Every structure is written in structure tokens, then in C-alpha cells.
Amino acid sequence: MTAQPLLPMLAREEVDEPVRRLLDAATQRGYQDPNFLRVLAHDPPLLQHLLAFTKYFMYEGEVEHRLIELVRLKLAQLNACHF
């Protein structure tokens, strides 16, 4: 049996203009998992807050990028994530 997502990824054409701008801005900034954002597009306020946090954490914060990536890998391993 193949696992199926509970929420589908929304295509760029399926979202309102403000959400489309958020997705475009995230892509331009090099956000590493646009598919995750396409799922969060079901809840535009959540998407907006996550992107604001991510922008600070990934690009404006004081934590080294290497450490952030190590944390992401460990979290993926603990959650049996295939990404």
C-alpha cells in the first residue's frame, strides 16, 4: 500500500494572488522545500507566519547554516522522513 498525503499540494494556479506572491518570494529566496509550502498554501496565514519565521531563522539569525542543516537531518531521521 502506498502512503497518500492527507492534504494535496496546491499548484501555483490554484492559490489566490497573495499566496502566489508568498510562494514566488520563497522560491526566489531559495527556500529548499517548495512542495511543503504548496501544502501549507491551504492555510495562507500559517504559510505567511512560517515564511516570516524561516526568513529570520535561516537568513537573519545567528545560527550557522551547517548547524541548521544538521538539525533538519536529525529531525528527518527521527520522524522517518524520506526528504
What separation lies between the terminal Cα atoms? 19 Å
Shape: flat
Report the biggest beta sheet as strand number plus sense, adding barrel if it closes: none
Rg calculated over all Cα atoms = 14 Å
What's the helical proportion of residues? 55-70%
The tally of beta strands, per DSSP, is: 0
Element-level helix/strand string = HHHH
**Low-confidence spans:** none
Average pLDDT confidence is 82
What class would the helix/strand composition place it in?
Answer: mainly alpha
**Count of all domains:** 1
- Approximately what portion of the residues adopt beta-strand conformation? under 5%
Structure summary:
It is built from 4 helices and no strands. It has 83 residues and is mainly alpha-helical.
Outline the fold blueprint.
Elements: H1 17-28, H2 34-40, H3 44-60, H4 65-78
Helix pairs in contact: 1-3
Spell out the key features of this protein.
mainly alpha; 4 helices; 83 residues; 60% helix
Give structural notes:
- The protein is mostly helical and about 80 residues long.
- The chain has one domain.
- The chain is about 60% helix and about 0% strand.
- The chain has 4 helices and no strands.
- It is flat, with a radius of gyration of 14 Å.
